[in-house]
Write a structure and sequence with these properties.
It is a single chain. 60% of the residues lie in helices and 15% in strands. It is built from 26 helices and 19 strands. The chain is an alpha/beta fold and 707 residues long. The protein has an eight-stranded mixed β-barrel, surrounded by five helices. Strands 4-5-3-8-9 form a five-stranded mixed beta sheet, sandwiched between helices. Helix 3 runs antiparallel to helix 4 and helix 12 crosses helix 13.
Length: 707
Amino acid sequence: MRQEERKTIHAAILGAVLFLLIQIFRTPLGRIEDKDLLIAFYLILGCCTVAFGFAIFAQGWLLFANSLSKARLYTSALFLGVSIFDFLHVLGFVGIPGITSYISPEQSLWLLTFSRLASALGIMLIFSREDQLVGNGVKGKVFRNAFVVILLALAVFGLGNLIVSGLADEPWAETARDLMNMAILFVYLLGAAIIIYPGKSEKSASLLIIIRSLVFFSLAQVFFMNLFSVGELDYLFGMLSSAAAYYLLLTGVYRLTIEEPFQENQQAEARINYLAYHDELTGLPNRRRLMQRMEEVVLQSEQDKSRGFAGLVIMNINHFKNINDSLGHYAGDLLLQLVARRIGDEVRVNEELFSMGADEFAFLMTERTGLENCLVRAGELLRLFETPVGLESGEYHISLSLGVSIYPGDGDTAEQLIQNADTAVHNAKDQGVEIRRYIPAMQMKAKERLKLENDLRRALERGEFYLVYQPQVLLETEEIVGMEALLRWNHPKRGLVSPVDFIPIAEESGLIVPIGEWVLKTACMQNKMWQDAGYHPICVSINLSMRQFLQPNLAGKIDAILKDIGLDPCYVDLEITESMTLDKETAFDQLNRLKRLGVCISIDDFGTGYSSLHYLKNMPIDRLKIDRSFVSDVMEDSNNAAIVSTITSMAHHLKLKVTAEGVENKEQLHFLRQQHCHEAQGYLFSKPVKAAEFEQSFLRPLLEMPS
C-alpha cells in the first residue's frame, strides 16, 4: 500500500514537472517545423492509446469465469466505445485519406472531447463505488447495450456531420469546446478525489493505480485544452499522456479485479486449509493432522524395520470443567493456551504436540529406543505441571492424566493407536492414576461399558428396573417410620446388575434424569397404594442425582407427580449429596422451591463432602444421614466414633434429625443410641427388599396402631 502511495505521488510530481518543463521551453519547442514527423509520432501514440483501450475491453470480454467483477465488466464496455471514438479521432486528426472526407481534423477534436467526457464520467462512477460480483448472464446484456449505444452515437455523429461542419467555423464553437474540456478536467480531478477518499471502507492498493491513470488523464486534458499554445506539440504530449493513462488504467483494472481477487482466494483457501488441520484456539495441529502424521509414521515403520518405537501420549486436564464453571470460559480458553505453550516449549527433536479439542492434547514421539524410554518421557511431561499455572485471577495447580499407546504393539493402524491411547487416558482417569499404558483389557472394558449403556437405554422401556425398600427405624422405639427406595436392574441376560456398575453410566449419559423420574413416580405410587390399602403412612426417601437436582423445573415436575398420584408431600423425603450444594446460590434457590412443596429434604452420605457449617445452618433441610463408612468402624476406630458423635451433636443444635446408615450389629446400635441418633437403617434391621416382602414384614394396618 505504501509503495503504491509513493508511486502515485511520484506520478503526480512527474506530470507537474513535465508540464512545467514544456511551458518553460515552449519557445524553442514551437520552432519545430517538421509537421509530418509530429503527425507520424501522433499517429503512433494514438494507435498505442487505442491498443491499450481495446486491451481493457478484451480483458473484460475474455477473462471471465462463473462470477464477474462489475467494475471490470462496466470498464470493458465503456472503453470499447472510448477506443472506437479515439481511433476515429486519430485517423481524422492526422488526415488519413478516405477518412478526412467524413471527419475533418476540427471534427476529430470534438470526437476526442466526447471520448474524454465519457471516460471521465465512467471512471468516476465505476470506481467510486464498492465492486460487486454479478452473474454470467449480465455480461451479454451489458455488451449488447454497449454496442447499441456505440452504434447510435456513430449514427448521430454521421447524420450531424454537416451541422457540425457548419458550426465549426462559428466563433463560439471553439469557446464551447474549451469549456467542455475544462469541465472534463474537473471531472477527472473530482473522480480522483472521490475514489481516494477513505470513508469507512478500506481502499485497495490497486485503486491508487487508477488514481495515477486519472493524473495522466488530467495532464492530457490540460495539453488538449491548448491554453498555452506551442503548436501541435500540445496534442502530441496530450496523446503521450493519454497512452500512459490508458496503460495505467489497464494495469489497475487487472490488479483490482483479477489479480487481487485471485490472491484473496488463495489466501482464503490457505486459511481454510490451515483451519482444517489446526486448532484455532491454541494454533496446534489438530486431530485430523495427527491422523495424517500417525499414518505416515506407520508407513515409514513398515518400510524401514530398523526405525525405533513410536509412542503416542493422549493428555487430559483433570477437573477442567471446574475451571470453566467457576472462572468462566475465557479463563478456560486461557488455561488451554498456557498448557499448550508450556508443553510446546519442551518439544524436542522427533516430537510433536497436537490439540485433540476440548481439554485433550496428543504428544507424538518417534524413533524412541524402547518402551521404557517412551514411558519415562511421558513422566517428564507430567512434571511440567508441578509448578502452578498463572491465570488473571491467580495461580492454579493443575494435573494431567496420560494414556500411552506404543507402535508396534498397541495397534497396527493410525486409528487404532489413537483410539487405544484415548482408551488408556480414560482408564487412567477412572482409576485415579497419572499414567496408564494401553492394554487390550481396557478396550474390552470400554466395549463392555458401551454395551451396558446401550442396554441401559432400553431397560426403562422394557420394564427391567424395579425398586426395593429398606426400612428406617426410630431408635427410641424401634418403630418403622420410613423407608428408602433403591433402584435395581434385572438384565435379561446378565441378571442383576449392581447399581455401582450402571448408576455412573446413567449419570454420564444423562439417562439418570428419565430413570430418576421413573423412580420418583414408582416410589410415590407405591407409597400411596399402601396408604389407600389402610396401612399406617410412612415417609419414602428417594435419592436425587446431580443432573436431576440441577433441572430448573424440578420442583414443578415433582409437584405435578404428587398431585397426579394424590400423595401428601410430607410423606416424601428427597435425598441430595453434599456435592450438590457446592454452588450455594443455585442450591439454595432449588432447595427453597422444593421446600415450598412441603417435602422433606435430607443430605445423604454426610461427612464425606465439603459442606460449610455456615451454609449448613441456613439451608432449608430436615435431616442429615451419616455415611455408612463412619458407622461400620465406629466401634474399632475412635476417629470414626468422634465424627459420628460430632455430627449427631451438631444436628441436635441445628434442630435437624439424624439417620445413621449401614447399621449391622447391636454394638453399633447401642453406640448410636448413646449419641441420641434419631433413626437408623441397615442390615441389622433388614436388607433392601421388594415391595411385597416389605409390605408383609414391616407395614401395619391403622387398626393395629395404639390409639
